[in-house]
Design brief:
With 404 residues, this protein is of the alpha/beta class. It folds into two domains: 2-195 and 386-399, Rossmann fold (3-Layer(aba) Sandwich); 206-384, Glycogen Phosphorylase B (Rossmann fold, 3-Layer(aba) Sandwich). The chain contains 15 helices and 14 strands. It has helices at residues 15-27, 73-94, 110-121, 135-139, 148-163, 172-182, 210-215, 235-244, 262-272, 288-292, 314-320, 334-342, 353-364, 367-384, 387-399, and strands at 2-5, 33-38, 52-55, 58-63, 100-104, 124-129, 166-169, 189-191, 221-226, 251-256, 277-280, 297-301, 325-328, 345-348. The strands form two sheets. It has an eight-stranded mixed β-sheet with strand order 3-4-2-1-5-6-7-8, with helices on both faces. Strands 11-10-9-12-13-14 form a six-stranded parallel β-sheet, sandwiched between helices. β12 (297-301), α11 (314-320) and β13 form a beta-alpha-beta unit. α1 packs across α15 (387-399). The protein is globular. It starts with a strand and ends in a 5-residue tail after the last helix.
Amino acid sequence: MLFIVSEVYYPEEAGTAHYMTGIADGLAKGAAVRVICAKPKYDRRWEGLPTKENHNGVQIHRCWATTFDKNHLGGRIANVYTASFSIFFAILRMVRKGDKVLVVTSPPLLPFVVAVACCLRGAKWILRIDDVYPEAMIHAGILRPGGIAARFIDWMNRTLYRRTEKIIVIGRDMKRLVEKKLGGRNGPILLIPNWADVDSVVPCERCENRLLRELGLERKFVVGYAGNIGRVQGVEALFATALRMKELDDVQFLFVGSGQKTAWLKQAIAGAQLKNITLVGQRPRSEQSDFLNSCDIAVVPLVRGMGGAGVPSRLYNVMAAGKPVIASVDHDSETALVVREQDIGWVVAPEEPAEMARAIIEARSAPDRLAEMGRRARKVAEDKYSRPRILAQYQHLLLSQRPE
């Protein structure tokens, strides 16, 4: 039996839930798959979901957990602890010797309780790394670099990596960082990137875009940011870029999403009285093709130092929408490598508003080049990052009976 363990899962839509649901659905076409997850926390539409459900051939078991506001650190920690330990006891009840368990690293406590439970039940467990700790927590401002907590978490994760059956990473920079942590004692580390939703996210003409019409931005050069407005996103630098460019009447910055930095961003916009930033809330994944097509160029900004610690999945659907990219990221990160190798945009140093502003001005002045980059981005999404192509790698890893 194959189990997939994730705190978040269908019907939740963002990030980890989307990809873990897609992996389970794909694997269920060739094997019996069971999912152990927590009940949805952050949307009242999903209250009353059953504890047990069959969805797309996957048997889902949902565990109880607290539902405090995830944007407040204390509430988030409480949610993590209750979900992780509920899942721990579910594994003890459901998993048997010889079963395989795929677990994701978000939240950071989850893989440890899964590892202990799998050891107690004699099951094999495989780790999918979405974020590397403590690095992701340090860059999010949660931990102090070199502090006791950071060193302890680093030691715990090194131990975790050494004892897992296999490790899946989602970027080349992440693979390098994990290899460094293993110090040459590594088992198999497999690179399987996230996919682009090339069937549901497709390019469309500006004149057909509903969101641009709704916001009255049809005649603007739109710089788009879509996704989690969270702790490691370089939102401050993007705001500073907009502040630098406030005199350019034809350039508009569009934020679609929400997260821990949303309140700060709203206050900053109001305080500076900026008219060149439009902020709309979270939109459902069903509208993703629309809001990703509502810009002329998309921005993927992270705080400095995040290379290897995490890979922003939004890049792949931006490519599916046929949009060029300004990647404000570490020079050797997976995002930077993809943008440079495929020639689909600009790479600028993180937290450098002047560089970002120059890239935006250059993009605005070269519409033909921009259009060609967009066409190339769409083709790369179809050829290298389609869902069937990525799922085939999971099927080979988790369902193949041949030795790796």
